[in-house]
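Researcher: Please predict.
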Amino acid sequence: TPEPEATPEPGASLEPEVTPEPEMTPEPEATPEPVSTPEPETTAEPETTPEAEISPQPVFTPTPEHVDVILIEGEPKNVKLDRNKLTLRVGKSKKLKATVKPQKAGNKTLTWTSSDEAIATVNGKGKVIAVSPGTAVITCETVNGITASCEVTVKAPKRNQEKSIPRWMHS
């Protein structure tokens, strides 16, 4: 049962009576302590511990049929050609050999290009074909932009020189 409310006596004030506290004066020799300001009251939610916030997760233990192995190997750091200069006659060819380092680089794919295909062309395996006299630069490039180059000089083809018939054969 609820308690009955107190009713004031007739003529009594409804305001609460406040009695002032006596002032405290520190003694002269004492050092005043810093006064801390009370924090404003807030409605506090119940405290939670980190364990209470973590919901349990199912444990998955992979078996061999669930595992895909992906080897992540480093990028190429260097590429070198077996030569940096090459001279060919028109119509002749030569394969350049590229070495990508480190040996265990993940993707050793190379892109081959010629600075002037009217002089020398190159295929995807580094085979250079001399087209016409002049100079071109053959470049191989790794997937991450590292390059190596070879300067190719193409010379005119040799003239087929007729063998001269020795005079004694002339009759």
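Model: Helices lie at 50-53.
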